[in-house]
Amino acid sequence: MSEFFKSNPMALRHCLLYKFLQKNAIEQVYSVFCMVIGYDVIKKEDFYSYSNQFDRGVFDINDDRGSITDMRDVLRSDKYALRACILYESLKYELTERVYKTLWPKSNSLAHKSNPIFSIYNYFCKVIGDDVMDYREFEFWFYRFLNGDFDLNYVRDKDKKTYELMDMPVVVMKNIVEYLDIFDRMKLAKTSQSLQTFVEDTKLLHHTLKLNISPYMATISFSSSVCIKYIREGKDCVKNYKKRETLIQNVSYWKQAFLDFKHFLKNPKLHLNTFFIESDVDNENVFDDLEDTLKFTHFLSVKNVFLVGHSWELLAKILPVLKPGYLKTINIDSHNPNVDSMEKVFETKQWKQAKYFKMDGACFIWPLRNLYHFKEVTIRLEKLSLEDVREMKEVLFNSSDFEKCSMAFSREIDMSVCEQEFGNLYHSPAPNSTDYFKIKVEDHHFEVTRRKR
């Protein structure tokens, strides 16, 4: 590559000006510049000389027009200068790729890890000006240089059809996009407005999204391998993602986590199999912020919700934002039941239309009739009364949907209560069906299961 710049001194000078405009430390700039274009292209003293020249507002010492107020105008007004700058960026990208693959040979390329071309374009515009070139033009030249075509004078045929991803049949595009995870979709959406619209209109299926909040840290997990950490650092937050740490000043760790969490959930096409939230804090401000985070104009399409925490307020704040009917399973693990919160929950459509409920930690202290619409229930109770058994027998045993009820008790069960209703057989026929209910009673456990004959 060094031979190209040796034979194109004007392109070299444009690249030098481009680096000068980035306002980085001169020693570092020279070292990186030589790594990109070649160590034998420009001497260090000449590099410093050009830097001083540009600093005085002079691009060409033979030009009689005097100093230039804004040195960016030199590049803005010359399409060949802009192409030279893009060439430099493509060479730097290629170098970065080589270094990355050398250090991490078993990893995927840098290009797969992020959306570098669009980021490079944004930086290019930041240095020279937002209106110097549109993204498609930049992308054309970037990939041309990346493929080894360095002719800055190439005349592009604007009338020639350039096929793009969006030219694919809609069915093919949908098949491609549906297999992309949440991160790859976000990258794809950044490449163009049309792709952003297409991505937003395509259903996104994701298996598990987990939010964990502790007194000193919050985490967002998308799978076993993808996790973002938000660490409390006084009044600031340290965000850790893919081994990169970012300090976010004057923002609490949970607020930053909620901000990112909202960004992931705002897509109305997102469908989650499992939505897991765990909180080890008992702070009303945290729960209020979480409630605000989950406020959308659409319901969240979640099949299974798992909530673990000190406070039952979590369920009361989260359940109303989930899509009624789509939600199938409610699983809660908490040791501090809140009577008022659960009374509100019992009235929601989400609760009434869910099919499975499991509760760990605390005992269920509310009337059992709030559970009789579920297909399957697993709970803890203090004790089993004769009234409870009679009500279950009357309601559940006449339900065509009921499948299983499992109850663990703090106190030992009075066997006479069950024998009084079921006798010694512990079987009961299901009305209008060949099925039957099998009743299993132990010292601290009571279970009813629908069975086929």
TrEMBL record:
<feature type="domain" description="F-box">
    <location>
        <begin position="162"/>
        <end position="208"/>
    </location>
</feature>
<dbReference type="Pfam" id="PF01827">
    <property type="entry name" value="FTH"/>
</dbReference>
<dbReference type="InterPro" id="IPR002900">
    <property type="entry name" value="DUF38/FTH_CAE_spp"/>
</dbReference>
<dbReference type="InterPro" id="IPR041426">
    <property type="entry name" value="Mos1_HTH"/>
</dbReference>
<protein>
    <recommendedName>
        <fullName>F-box domain-containing protein</fullName>
    </recommendedName>
</protein>
<dbReference type="Pfam" id="PF17906">
    <property type="entry name" value="HTH_48"/>
</dbReference>
<dbReference type="InterPro" id="IPR040161">
    <property type="entry name" value="FB224"/>
</dbReference>
<dbReference type="GO" id="GO:0045087">
    <property type="term" value="P:innate immune response"/>
</dbReference>
<dbReference type="Pfam" id="PF00646">
    <property type="entry name" value="F-box"/>
</dbReference>
<dbReference type="InterPro" id="IPR001810">
    <property type="entry name" value="F-box_dom"/>
</dbReference>
